[in-house]
Amino acid sequence: MAVVTGSNRRRMVERVGLYLALGGFGALMLFPFLVVAFGSLKESSDIFRFPPRMLPYSQDTAEFEGEEAGLFVIDGVQRVLIETIPVGIYAPPDALEATVTAPTAEVERRGGFLDGETVVVDGEEQPLFDVEVDGEIVAMVQLSSTTQGRFAALEDPDDVVGATARTAERVESISPQPENFARVTELQNLDRSLTNTVLVTLLVVGGTVLTSILGGYAFARIQFPGRDAMFLVYIGSIMVPFVILIIPLYQLMVALNWVNSLASLVFPFVFNAYGTFLIRQFFISIPKDLEEAAVIDGASRWKILWRIMVPLSMPAIATLSTFMFLYAWNSFIWPFIVISAGNPDNHVLTVSLQQLGGRAADSPNLILAGVMIAIAVPVTVFVLAQRYFVENVATSGIK
Amino acid sequence: MTTLTAVWDRRPRWRLPRAFDAPRWLTIVLCWRVVHLLAMAGALGWALTAPTLEGPARIAALAASAIVLLLDVVGLVGLARGRAVGRSYSLAADYLTFLGAVLFLLHVNRVFVGLDALGETFSRGVPFLLLAVLAWIATGLEERGGVFERIARVGRSVGLLAIGATLLAVGLLPGLATFLVRTAQPLQLGLVVVGLASAYLAWRTFQPDVAQHLGATNQTTRTLDGLLFASPNLLGFAAFFAGPLLFSLFVSLTAWDAFGEPEFLGLDNYVNILALNVGIASGGQSASEVLAAGYSEWFRIGNVVLGARDVLFWRSIRNIVFFTAFALPLSTIPALFLATLLNSKAPGIKVFRAIYFVPSIAGVVAVALIWRQLFDSTIGWLNYLISIVVTWLNAIPGLSITDPRIQWLSDADIALFSLVIVFSWMFIGYNAVLFLAGLQGVDNTLHEAAMLDGANRWQRFRNITLPALKPTTFFVVASTGILTLQLFGENVVLFPTTTPIGAGPQNSTLTPVVYLYEQGFRRFSFGYASAVAWVLFILIFAFTLVQFRRQREDAEG
Questions:
Q1: What is the pLDDT of residues B268-286, one digit of tens each?
Q2: Pick from B107, B361, B430: CB nearest A379
Q3: Within this chain, do residues B315 and B304 fall inside the same structural domain, yes or no?
Q4: Which of A173, A278, A281, A340 is the most exposed place for a label (fewest CB within 10 A)?
Q5: B304 and B316 assigned to the same domain
Q6: In-domain check, residue A278
Q7: What is the residue range of B302's domain?
Q8: pLDDT band at A91 (very low <50, low <70, confident <90, very high)
Q9: CATH no. for residue A308?
Q10: How far apart are CA B415 and CA B422, in angstroms?
Q11: Chain A residues with beta carbon closer than 8 angstroms to that of B368
Q12: Pair (A327, A238) in one structural domain
């Protein structure tokens, strides 16, 4: 009995270790998405905050003397900022650690503005200032400057204290900013890009499925001389990297006048060797007796294909569809080359997003909102049709 | 699909009239062949001489008319001798003429570029389209019987209506009207006539009685059927793959700025790209003093200066080799480890598999933008997490590490490794699922036998799993390597403001494809850029070949 419990405990430990390892990797994969999801809901000041935090916060406001003002809390009292004054941090040149904070407006250059006195500190010449300390004027050098805020208590406007504005503790609460999505859509025409992407993706998926079914049937079921050599050459084209086609295909688009048009994203991509291969393999696995009955009934090849082969091949068609969906939705290099210079109305999401990244570098929250819009559809489709995505990967590995 | 086929079956049975009997019809086809041949000869002459045709357009026109002319000649001779082969070639010529006329009609009527207008109205159709999809799903419920049968029937009608509504909403009627108005012009009407005539000719010649008359075998019929079904793929392959590929090879041998005719250079482009020169710098000599004219320093080891004519290209090669050397192991070895973890029966494992897969479906632009945020050197999470770890470590007595505050995207020594992180993060999960598929194919009995022999876990992995995974490993390494060698999107998104775009700080992330883009689309040296593409292709091919060889050798040895 002791042996059994021992092995049970070992299995338990193994399980825990397994989940820890899986969870660790899972966190690594999910964390950036969480940053995007929450970051897309942050307001601008929140996303630039350091240290970063996950949830979207914004400063609470309260009515103060008839106006909405941001709330701070200083020494336990809720206050609002009524004024900011620039202040300098000063210290005597011989005792740099004895710092004093004073408003720059109340400090004057020693010896006047034009020919002020200087002192050498750590080998560097620095101007001297007259700073009043406890009623005495002391010569000091300026170490740094900041902004001093004057904060009035919310309950009692006459109770005013000074504090460094930048580091004053804000009263904050979680408040997502969904209007980021509307703003980024307006900024970069993302709604139009989204429709274009949907349109292009639908046409590429539909077109590829159609041509692959026709070609797959010819290569799987119709015996004719030269067929297998032809198929081999066609499949061989999968091995050729796309970069080699960029320039000639671009020239073809120029010749057809398709540059800057959605046509350039659709028609060259509806003939796919991988798709034909996938469908052919599936067709080959279908037993021939099913068709023979139909042939005896006098059905044409066309009818056999659409009434018998295609309904049986739905899993392969779904797999191919998910593959082409991802390919069309996420393709970047080609759209970047053929359409990014032209009419923004013809952009697709990847191109818009890339341009947004360049244009809106100062509002990362909007960029992240754009990213959310772009990944929402693929992620949804993935959740709904996960099986086919994974199958697609598995079949591509077997070939 | 069921909806569509049901409608298709209920269509009225009407057949085209088979005018004339087979012998008389063949006489007509023979006459038509002569006319067609003359027309094609005219087209070929026009393609050779027309001043308006430039570069690829002329080549395409020449190729198309020459091929159809050839079909015409063989078809004519064959028909004149009463051979079945004449019918086959004649059919091919008429089929291609029909397709050509239709496609050209669509082209001159601007139907293809009309997609842009559809993009504008398409959003109006989306709700109806969603309804159609729902209705289609409902029709799938039919087999469950009972109430579902009625739901399926309703779904069928709703689906049809929704498809109709979608077409109307996106502007089918105005589109058709525009098309008809545009067709009412001489060229377009001519194309309609040619298209219809060729279609009827092809159809009538295709009929069995004509085949019988010429004594065509079943084999011929099968060949024609096969080519007909494969024709979309074959024509697409010729137009968008084989043709461009050959054209690219030609352009790479020329100097061409896309305007006017390419100037033939022979192998000059390749020589300029690849030329290297070595010099020994002694006593503080500069690179220009020890290298041959036209060369500048690529890098130096000690006194030895290696110079290149195209330093930027060699810089891109060095970058991509470094990138691949890090990104390839980082995106495959952890993936194999993950796959072995995923290959267990523990509950919830599918959830993890799905999570690991998500980065690869998000797309390169989105992923790069996400990481750009994390990489931010002042407010980014990455530096923040590093500084937390540094603080923890410094709590250990005797340790004092300075917070590195890494400039992920602006430090020339770091930028390429930032790209390695982005790439590996994106593909680890994808590769893990690939490995998992391979692992699930490994024979379990071998493992059990080894376990009985007392082999430990590592021994079993090393001696059973790894050898069995050889084909999967080859596929994963080869396909990932092909991706790393073509790195481009991440660069462009992460370094949109550098020149060349995507080259990063001090060209530290300049990759061959970035360089190709710069040469082709910024400097318009299409010949040179094509040559760069071919050099890269050879590099990728060599890489794949080496992987393949290794897999072979291991399998044999």
A1: 999 999 998 888 888 777 8
A2: B361
A3: no
A4: A173
A5: no
A6: yes
A7: 276-308
A8: confident
A9: 1.10.3720.10
A10: 11
A11: 357
A12: yes
